[in-house]
Amino acid sequence: MAEELLATMQPLFLVMNGRRLFCNLHCDRDVRLRVLVLPPFAEEMNKCRPLLARVARALAAQGCACLLPDLYGTGDSGGAFGEADWNVWLADANALDAWLADRFPDSRSGLLAVRSGALLLGGMRGAAQGCTGTRVVCWQPVLDGRRYLQQVLRLRVMAGRMTGGEESVKSLEARLAGGETLEVAGYALSAALASGLSEATLSPASLARADGAVLLEFAASVLSEPSLPVARLTTAVREAGGAAEARTVACEQFWTTQEIAVPEAAVAATVAAFLQ
Amino acid sequence: MPLQQVSTILTEILGLPGQRAPLEAHMPLLGHLPEFDSMAVVAVLTAIEDRFGISIDDDEVDATIFETVGSLDAFVSAKCADAAD
After folding, report:
1. Assessment of whether the complete model's pTM goes beyond 0.90
2. Which of A119, A143, A146, A147 would you mutate first to test chain B, the one with the most B CBs within 10 A?
3. A143-194, pLDDT tens digit by residue?
4. Residue A68 dihedral angles phi and psi, to the nearest 5°
5. Which end of chain A is more exposed for a tag (fewer CB within 10 A), N or C?
């Protein structure tokens, strides 16, 4: 297991747009598909980290190169979380995408968008190119940035209620709109990051240009149908002439469980989604 | 149908072991199940929002919604009907 890890993993510090970013590159020989991971938000990334490392190794073993970045202000990259900015994350995602294409010019392109990483996907590469020519796989995609921000703020509201606080999601949104940085669940959420996140979307038109899109959703007790937003998106992508498929995978909801989970079913489903 | 999906969400989040059949509508939740604490409330609201593509405001949430599985399902059905208009 340790040998497998060392054979494929290269920790790198890359400078993108003047910012120092820590990434792990997993690859072996003969790279036929390069995959950039678009990370989830804040604590969800900590919970996904071991699973993402496992998936990256599994992809490397199948002739893929998988780049796992810490975006600016997260993990071992430069900057503090309070300095993170949605537009910075987009610019750096584009730069990492280009770096990976340069490094493996004879490979096909892939993107693994984890949770709110789907909203980063939506903003990458510009409207004209979008997801063109890229195999896109999403994990439990966040498709409504404003709703997601409200869910994040709700954590603080609930924690506050336990100690007699009177905050509301609306009052916190107003404070962010006024330029204030708020602490939520141990993270300093800046006004710039919050506004970028809440305005982000993933358009069906962009996803329709992908070389196939697979939207994976996960639950221990599998619901045979996808969630309504994912079902609507796959329909809209098909109506726009693209190929999109929603699949449900039976495993723990690893981005949110108390105990860190590394479900093999998620690994297998992801490898299949990229390499089918 | 909402009840099946609401039941599945509750089973998943509350970690009800060995629960296979859908939960009965009259099954009491808040104040009856020790697992149903404030963190569970947040998790259930989030899961419902994500599954049904709806947004639930703070001021729509009070204890009566979580009285039983059935009351939660009725709330969700009404929200979905509103969203469809």
Report:
1. yes
2. A147
3. 999 999 999 999 999 888 888 888 999 999 999 999 999 999 899 999 999 9
4. -110, 100
5. N
